[in-house]
Amino acid sequence: MSVFSILDISASAMQAQTVRLNTVASNLANADSVSSNAETTYRSKQPVFQEIMQQQSAGSAGSGVKVKEIVESQAPLVMEYNPNHPMANEQGYIYRPNVDTVEEMANMLSASRSYETNVEVMNTSKQLLLRTIQLGQ
């Protein structure tokens, strides 16, 4: 595996974690939204990652990660009785998203740490490559 493959793998992981951070931000931004029916209520979204394998010229396989799709959570929505709310339906209920803010904060920390780790992998690879070039001088 070449140093450039390592950089490609880290770059793909950073891109995937960026999508993960964006979905967390979207989930947190919509956590307090309300609706008068279940069909229009925001549902938590999560990215699904997939490994990518690429055949390289030397016979070895380079790999990485990509976002296969973004799926909506199937967890039940929160139905709250609040007949005085302007968005309440005929029965007096409002619907809140199925966003768990504690889980989303944990996802945000995990994605952030993963992103930072891949930045460190890229920096270390760059330093190793530069030192290897300096050996030839």
Written description of the protein model:
The protein has 137 residues and is of the alpha+beta class. The chain has a domain at 3-31 and 44-72 and 99-135. Helix content is 45%, strand content 23%. It is built from two helices and four strands. The strands form two sheets. The protein has a two-stranded antiparallel sheet with strand order 1-2. The protein is elongated. Keywords: Bacterial flagellum, Cell projection, Cilium, Flagellum. Belongs to the flagella basal body rod proteins family.
In short:
The chain is of the alpha+beta class and 137 residues long. It is built from two helices and four strands; from the N terminus they run αββββα.
What oligomeric state do the depicted chains represent? single chain
Beta content comes to 15-25%
Question: How is the main sheet built?
Answer: 2 strands, antiparallel
Could you state the order of secondary-structure elements as H and E? HEEEEH
Distance between the termini: 24 Å
Averaged pLDDT, please?
Answer: 90
What is the CA-based Rg, rounded? 22 Å
Protein name: Flagellar basal-body rod protein FlgC
Pfam families: Flg_bb_rod, Flg_bbr_C
Family: Belongs to the flagella basal body rod proteins family.
InterPro entries: Flag_bb_rod_N, Flagellar_basal_body_rod_CS, Flg_bb/hook_C_dom, FlgC
